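Handoff note, outgoing to incoming analyst
You'll be picking up this chain. Sequence as last confirmed:
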Amino acid sequence: MDFFTNALIPLGIARLLKRRGDEQLAMAVGGVSPDIDFALAWISTLFPQYYIFSHRGITHSIVFSVLTSTFCLYIFTRAWVKKNFKKRTKIDADLKFNSVTIAIAYMGALCHLALDYMTTYGPALFYPFTNKRYALELFFYSSIVLTVVGAIIFYIILKKKKMSWARINMPLTVFFVLVLVLTGIRAGVKMDVRATLDSDQEYPTTNIFTWWVIKPTSDPNKFYVIEYDVRNHKYRYSREFEYLSVSNEDGKLPFISIDDAIRRSDEFAQVQKFRWNAPIICIDASYDSQNVSWVIRYENPLTITQYEANPRPFNSMSSWFMGSIETVVTTDKGEVIG
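Most recent structure output, in case you need it:
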């Protein structure tokens, strides 16, 4: 979810729990703390093997978010930060750094993880036990409506004259109701899509009535990616994919089996990062007898169909951005080639 939703929801929950004003602020600080991973993104860019430092990686873990929330709370309780915050807003940020506020900030971080869980792809909730990402797939990465309304309410709260914690109940209540209504609508629409298409994988878009659906075929190796419009019950786009496609045009015996070639290819850090970012993977492998090598192409069918169905000027950018990565495996080495 966006910054404003991640701040307002924990703040509202703290108010429902009747915490003091400073503790409510601590929960809001914790609510936005996991997104400090934006400052760590360069690590996974330079060193793909550390892809867990990407967005929604290590800082979005139930285990490690306690560290990020504690760190952010510590920064926010420094005298110069509190002074500048109070100067620019009407809120008295007289936060204390103690065991109670640390626990409350962590609760805010858990709220953040729950909100991100409702979005597409989701966070790595249980890292370091597993790097799997968990997602309910109700919202896109964030909701435009929630972002806009949340920004307005956030501004109203900060700029209220004679600000007091008791004066923010109404805007918070409005936002809470909006979140609940949108969540209920999206859940209902998703259930309708699942029942209509007999699917078990639906992925949201920014449009509440348009969904990407994975539709299996009679062949277990094949499936369709469908852009489905709930309003008129029509397919707007559809393309067939294969989970694994293997070709050997000249029929010569490969030096290693395709299973071994994929296993070696999967060891590349760039491939591991690509797999971590893709909820579905398709592999197109071809044997080049002249160079005695397997060329293995990994594809994220969701990303590919999104760009094909909705062309944009930047669709000609890198293959990674388009949702694919390619490797070559030979007798003595292997490398990522695109």
